Amino acid sequence: MSSSSTPNPNSRPDLDDTINVTTAHNSASMTAAAARENRNPGSNKEPLSIATFAVCAVIFIICGSVIGNASGGFFSYNTTIKPEYVRGKAPGVADDVALPPKPILNVYVKKGQSLYSAKCNGCHGADGKGDGANYPSLVGSSWSTGHTERFAQVILNGLQGPTSTGKVYGAGVMPAQGGGMSAQDLAFIMTFIRNSFGNSVGDVVSPEMAQAAIDIAAKRSNPAAPVTAEELKAHEKDLTGEKMDPTTLVDPITFKPVGAKK
Ligand code: HEC
Questions:
Q1: pLDDT band at residue 75 under the 50/70/90 scheme
Q2: Is 177 a pocket residue for ligand 1 (Cβ < 6 Å)?
Q3: Where in the chain is the domain with CATH 1.10.760.10?
Q4: For labelling alongside 32, which of 44, 146, 209, 240 has CA 20 to 30 A away?
């Protein structure tokens, strides 16, 4: 048989079908066209499996959220926006009006509520009533509604019972809450508690008063220890500093009295 993979081009057409085309093609190592191409250099590596991509994606998401949330935060609002930042009017926009002013008492109570939720809620409860056994109620508590200096020292330094009612609560000691608390935040929290849950002192603790409290706490001889009822006797006073009329209208963003210069 003359069956060959390279038929003589000069021969006549293979009318007798002596060449099996399929076999001839299979036996050729590659087609002529493919043989002319350069080899794909490739990387000699296996392609990555989809599972590897999925695992990497999960790791990236977790790492990203950890870094993004890291205390202080690489991308946190506070590191990019200065505390005293006040949004200026948009240039060329005549009717870019500020938010309507509100009474300072309402603004402080609202700000204090969110700080309370973050700092005190877990122990003293969303309704401020504590649980009667481990955590005392702040509703009607004479230390919360009485002298501002005494109230502030409890918050800033924590408290070793007995409490205002003479009772010692199961949790034993309240941890200090002053760490990282600004005067403004302390003013918000105190104003909130004095005017919420049924407490209605009606006053505003100003940031200046709160700063006075922070200064007093800083001068304690044993700053790491919680205050005791005994120590609090020295603080049966009201904090010095600017008193604010609770009806003063303030900008709800800057907390500055409306019309006041910065
Ligand atoms: C980890 C739990 C815990 C947290 C958080 C906490 N407290 Fe307390 N607080 C206590 C305990 C416990 C007592 C009572 C201490 C004792 O009996 O020894 C107390 C007592 C008090 C008292 C005294 C009440 C009275 O009438 O004698 C005040 C006021 C108070 N806390 C305010 C606050 C404020 C404001 C915050 C948030 C900034 C706060 N506490 C956060 C546990 C806590």
A1: low
A2: yes
A3: 102-250
A4: 44
From 159, 185, 194, 232, the mutation candidate for ligand 1 (largest count of ligand atoms within 8 A of CB) is 159
**In a 3-state reduction of DSSP, which class is residue 227?**
strand
Q: How confident is the model over 32-41, as pLDDT tens digits?
A: 776 677 766 6
172 lines ligand 1 (CB under 6 A): yes
Atom of ligand 1 nearest to the CA of 172: 18
Rounded percentage of the chain residues whose pLDDT exceeds 70? 76
Query: pLDDT, tens digit, for every residue of 98-143?
Result: 678 999 999 999 999 999 999 999 999 999 999 989 999 999 999 9
Helical spans, DSSP H, in the chain: 21-27, 32-36, 50-69, 77-80, 104-119, 121-124, 142-145, 148-157, 183-194, 207-218, 229-232
Average pLDDT over residues 179-184: 95
Q: What is the CATH number of domain 102-250?
A: 1.10.760.10
Q: Tell me, using a 6 A CB cutoff, whether residue 144 lines ligand 1.
A: yes
